[in-house]
Amino acid sequence: MSAAPSKPESCRFTLRDLHERDRDAALDLWVAAWRKAMPEIDFDLRRKWFSGHLAQLKLRGFVMRCATGSRDRRVLGFIALSPKLRHLEQIVVEPDQWGNGVAASLMTEAKRLSPDGLWLDVNEDNSRAIAFYEKHGFRRLNRSRNPKSGLPTFRYAWGDVKRKREKAKGEL
Ligand SMILES: CC(C)(COP(=O)(O)OP(=O)(O)OC[C@H]1O[C@@H](n2cnc3c(N)ncnc32)[C@H](O)[C@@H]1OP(=O)(O)O)[C@@H](O)C(=O)NCCC(=O)NCCS
């Protein structure tokens, strides 16, 4: 799906689709953000995996939107979500932009694109992300494990998710 650029609450950044030409910037940002969130894991080693993962999400119809600096057009953060599955698969913001509203704008955009509900999985020890989701109205549903890392996770949801997930079970 392609959508026109839209203005978030703040004029310091702009929201637009994440394009193929943004791939390197998105990968750099993803590595830097996760390195800060979980310094014990070497995310440089996962960069290639994440590049393939993003391509897979695109093929599966996930929508990718990013926030860019209004002046320098730098990619500051991005989301990947499936409105059909109500699944917010990625939300990542460059570390020097944490706490300044970029993530809030991306979350507003995710809710605009999937207005009835969203679900996601978050590592249990990612306390900053958990505080962020709870601040944005997400509620904890249950515990699980990340199939790749084996680390314990919480499933969080906002809005109407369970009913939709029952319908979409075969696709998850
Ligand atoms: C998750 C992420 C997008 C949130 O963006 P952000 O700009 O950091 O979010 P915010 O600053 O708006 O909200 C974080 C909240 O957690 C609080 N916080 C900071 N460190 C914390 C900690 N160690 N424990 C608990 N809360 C913490 C902040 O004070 C803030 O709350 P406040 O607004 O009431 O002060 C960003 O941190 C990120 O990219 N993280 C790395 C990737 C990631 O974890 N993605 C989500 C995976 S599920």
Describe this entry's structure for a reader.
The protein has helices at residues 23-37, 47-59, 102-113, 127-135, 162-168; strands at residues 13-17, 63-69, 75-82, 87-93, 117-123, 139-145, 152-159. The chain is an alpha+beta fold. It has a single domain (13-171), classed as Aminopeptidase. Strands 1-2-3-4 form a 4-stranded antiparallel beta sheet, with helices on both faces. A 3-stranded antiparallel beta sheet has the order 5-7-6, with helices on one face. A hairpin with a 4-residue loop joins strand 3 and strand 4 (87-93). The longest helix has 15 residues, at 23-37. Mean pLDDT is 91; it is low at 168-172. The protein binds coenzyme A. Coenzyme A binds at residues 33-34, 37, 91-93, 98-99, 103-104, 120, 122, 126-129, 131-132, 135. Coenzyme A is lined by residues 33-34, 37, 91-93, 98-99, 103-104, 120, 122, 126-129, 131-132, 135.
State the main characteristics.
Aminopeptidase, three-stranded antiparallel β-sheet, globular, 172 residues, 28% strand, 33% helix, binds coenzyme A, 5 helices, disordered C terminus, alpha+beta
